[in-house]
Amino acid sequence: DSARLESGRCYAAELPVVYYGSSITQGGCCSHAGNSYEAIIARHTDWDYINLGFSGNGKAEDSIVEYMSGLPMLAFVSDYDHNAPNAEYLGNTHLRMYKAIREKQPKIPYIMISRPDFDKSYNESVARRDIVIDTYRYAREAGDRHVYYIDGQGIFRGPDEELCTVEGTHPNDMGFMKMAETIERVLRRSLRHGYLGD
Fold first, then answer.
1. Which of 39, 68, 156, 194 could be stapled to 164 by a disulfide with Cβ–Cβ 3.0 to 4.6 Å?
2. Residue 195: what pLDDT?
3. By the 8 A CB rule, do 190 and 111 touch?
4. What residues contact 64, with CB distance under 8 A and at least 6 apart?
5. What is the pLDDT of residues 126-178, one digit of tens each?
6. Is there a contact between 13 and 47 (Cβ–Cβ < 8 Å)?
């Protein structure tokens, strides 16, 4: 008799974090949807999120970039390294996507991640990481103080690093927890100075 039907509690921030990328971003291979790295971060921070992870199809095409650039958001996380068919493709799209989103979202924290399963094809991973770093350096040299880079090579490093994926690429629950810990630290730091979507 004392039960009430009410609306849900509001999130700590008005706007969501937008994540864009591959099947890893999508949450493929975690044991359930609540164990994707975005969901873990959301539980820790009480920030809502939009998951734009597309298995095999996060390729930064102009149409999806245009759509994402217009979304109201707290921060943007670029995690599509894996779905670029090769380093050349990544080089042709990575900086272009940054510029397009920055044009419409000049103040939000913009976080770039290189792929975490670094050792699977080492030389290719180095080439891809260099491209992501080049975009980051371009942004910093252009005066952007709201851009951040996460080196994927270090995400799984440490005890039991060989237990972080199901087949050398896709994270399992342990891998997603390590990704969440790394990305959450950077998100918190990027938002520490008072930017909460205003």
1. 156
2. 56
3. yes
4. 20, 52
5. 999 999 999 999 999 999 999 999 999 999 988 888 898 888 889 999 999 99
6. yes
With contact defined as beta carbons under 8 Å apart, do 132 and 91 qualify? Answer: no
In the beta sheet, which residues pair with residue 190? none
Give, for 67, the enclosing helix (H) or strand (E): helix 62-69
Task: With H, G, I as helix, E, B as strand and everything else as coil, classify residue 39.
Answer: helix
H helices of the chain, in order, are 23-26, 37-45, 62-69, 87-104, 122-141, 173-191
Query: Which tokens in the block code for residue 61?
Result: 């095409």
Phi-psi region of 160 (alpha: psi -120 to 50; beta: other; left: phi over 0): left
pTM: 0.92
Cα separation, 167 vs 198, whole angstroms: 42
List the structure tokens of 123. 């030389």
The two most distant CA atoms of the chain are separated, in Å, by 65
H helices of 115-191, where? Answer: 122-141, 173-191
- CA torsion angle 194 198 47 135 (round to 10): -80
Neighbours of 26 (CB within 10 A): 22
Check residue 59 and report its DSSP letter.
Answer: -
